[in-house]
Specification:
The protein is an alpha/beta fold. Helices cover about 25% and strands about 20% of the residues. It has one domain: DHBP synthase, CATH 3.90.870.
């Protein structure tokens, strides 16, 4: 059964953060808060953990469109090809925030993503998610946890999330109530920005 760990967004407890980081390092799956909906993630360098997430989502790993949670823009060049000034300005204006930006991936992508031409980058405006990634030392892969309910697309109550997911994952973080609207997805890999999905983030950022 998963550990249920309470962490406060305003003042994350380092001991609890360390537990989560240790769980990720040892191949664990973690459900964590973001500035939009709760996400399911693992260490992007751990192929077995990635395969577990793909299995839960019912897709093949090589077909999965997971996004990467990063702490800030400083390590973008680890996974993304060089981007032009106007693209960087958009990122700087919008992040941290409720956006997923699709950018051209480079040759340093972990083996599971080697065939991908693009990568989705998220820098959420949430201290818990960003500090975990910072302490881990590399991004975590992220996918939203959807609800089967036709009316409620995303569960916002961490206790209900724990009830539903406790036997599928290793850690569920209670970071308070989540949002019920996913991130806005914008493709910046071409010559013009393309809005792929309108979500919580405003599209007036260009």
């Amino acid at each position: 059964m998963a550990d249920f760990i309470k962490i406060y967004n305003e003042n994350p407890n380092e001991r609890e953060i360390a537990k989560v980081v240790q769980g990720l390092r040892s191949g664990g799956l973690v459900i964590y808060p973001t500035d939009t909906v709760y996400g399911l993630g693992c260490d992007i360098t751990n192929t077995k953990a990635l395969e577990r997430i793909a299995k839960i989502k019912g897709i093949k790993l090589e077909k999965a469109n997971f996004s990467f949670i990063c702490p800030d823009l400083s390590n973008l060049s680890d996974y993304v090809k060089q981007i032009d000034t106007s693209t960087f300005k958009i990122l700087k204006r919008a992040l941290p925030g409720p956006y997923t930006f699709i950018l051209p991936g480079n040759n340093n992508l972990p083996s599971a993503f080697k065939k991908k031409k693009t990568v989705g980058i998220r820098i959420p405006d949430n201290n818990i998610a960003r500090i975990i990634v910072e302490r881990l030392g590399n991004p975590i892969v992220s996918t939203s946890i959807r609800d089967e309910d036709d009316v409620i697309e995303y569960t916002t109550d961490p206790e209900l999330i724990f009830e539903k997911w406790q036997n599928k994952v290793d850690i569920v973080i209670d970071g308070g109530y989540g949002d019920n609207m996913a991130s806005t997805v914008i493709d910046l890999s071409g010559s013009e920005p393309v809005i792929v999905r309108e979500g919580k983030g405003s599209t007036d950022i260009f």
